[in-house]
Amino acid sequence: MSAGEKAPFPGGWLYDLNPVSLEKHLVAMGMPAYAASQVFHWLYQRREPDISNWTNISRAHRKVLDETFFTSLPLVENESRDGSGARKVLLRLHDGKGVEAVWIPGTGRSTLCISTQVGCAMGCSFCATGAMGFHRSLSMGEILAQVLVLLGFQLEADERFNIVLMGMGEPLLNPQAVMGALAVMTADPGMRIPSRHITLSTVGLLTPLAELEQRFPRVKISLSLHAADDAVRKRLMPKAASLHSIGELLDYFARPRHYPVTFEYVLIRGVNASRAQARLLAARLRTIRGKVNLIPLNPVPGCSFSAPALMEENAFLRVLVDAGLSVTVRRSRGKDIQSACGQLAVEVSGKA
Fold first, then answer.
1. Catalytic annotation on 341?
2. Quick check: is 5 catalytic?
3. Which of the four pLDDT bands, split at 50, 70 and 90, describes residue 132?
4. Distance from chain centroid for Cα 319
5. How far, in Å, are 43, 144, 194, 338 from residue 161 at the CA level?
6. Cα–Cα dist 311/76, whole Å
């Protein structure tokens, strides 16, 4: 049984169950409550989807599990690699939809870029995912499955890694599944990933963000800001800009938090990359504990925008640095396989 097929199993897909739900299922099936921890150990720590190999569970109980649940991961339909070592995978989900995830190697620590939706409802004008529109949100299991598939690319079993929820979709438009996945990622039983190695990127949906930060205060937050004034942000991110003004967003992020917020800022020639925009951005962020991540625009098919020249980029950077801000410039890997920031998209009318 593959995860690309609809399951005839009464319990459904095991990766979609949290520990509490799984325990209730198992107890109702006549198994001990502690078996839920054993199942999670095999799924998320041993990363073994074949129930027949779960040797610390009795053969009789394994038979019941095998008849009740399916555990196959989504099919990797396509894989692309570039010269930097980045690997982008297209995963085929049970309903035929496709979703992309990216493994990015690094010095001492790799990065797993995970999607939370098929497409995106935000419609940001510089983003390929936004251009494909919104099709559906992913389930908790579909989010976790991407992590498990990408971990198969690790060179060493104990290789360190970060997870960034920065792939397709706006995570906070899918809060229940995203927070369920975060719980499994960080918990024991579960993946036991320290929260400080997980980052969630959002356009700034403040109500679900407040709930997420209450439940997961050590998960790092990146705000997709991309403008220093509301008029420019409305041009680039019309739906996000209609929800909250920049002033409202910055008031929220001025509150004390465990980790500095990262302000993501895609540099676009003739739109938001001038010295005047840099001075306004510096003035607005000066009192907030955070850092700015400048991202020269990556090419997106059908998008008329372009990245600024290096001289203009450096001038923007210098204004921020001279104002005392912490700034990094992201030189995105994976551009030539369309896996860099803003480039993820799949065909949804049939096969991707």
1. yes
2. no
3. confident
4. 30
5. 18, 15, 10, 22
6. 41
**Among residues 120, 124, 127, 341, which one is catalytic?**
341
Catalytic, out of 100, 142, 170, 312:
100
Among candidate residues 123, 90, 102, 80, the one with its CA nearest the CA of residue 348: 90
Numbers of helices and strands, H then E, in the chain: 12, 14
Q: Is-same-fold flag (12-70; 75-337)? A: no
* Nearest-10 crossing angle of helices 246-253, 275-285: 40
Task: Write the pLDDT tens digit of every residue in 12-43.
Answer: 999 999 999 999 999 999 999 999 999 999 99
Q: Which of 62, 1, 40, 65 is nearest to 148 (CA)?
A: 40
Distance, in Å, from the CA atom of 54 to the CA atom of 59, rounded to the nearest integer, reads 9
Report the alpha-carbon distance of residue 72 to residue 130 in Å, rounded: 30
Give the burial string for 9-46 (b: 16+ CB within 10 Å, else e): bebebbbbbbbeebbebbeeeebeeebbebbbbbbbee
Cα 26 to Cα 32: distance, rounded to the nearest angstrom: 7
Amino acid identity of residue 186, one-letter, is T
Domain limits, the chain:
12-70, 75-337
Residues 108, 111: Cα–Cα separation, whole Å = 10
Strands 98-104 and 87-92: antiparallel
CATH of span 75-337: 3.20.20.70
Where do we find the tokens 């929220």? 252
CB 295 within 8 A of CB 124: no
Provide the pairing of β-strand 290-296 with 75-81.
Answer: unpaired
Rounded to two decimals, the pTM is: 0.91
Task: Report whether CATH 1.10.150.530 matches the domain 12-70.
Answer: yes
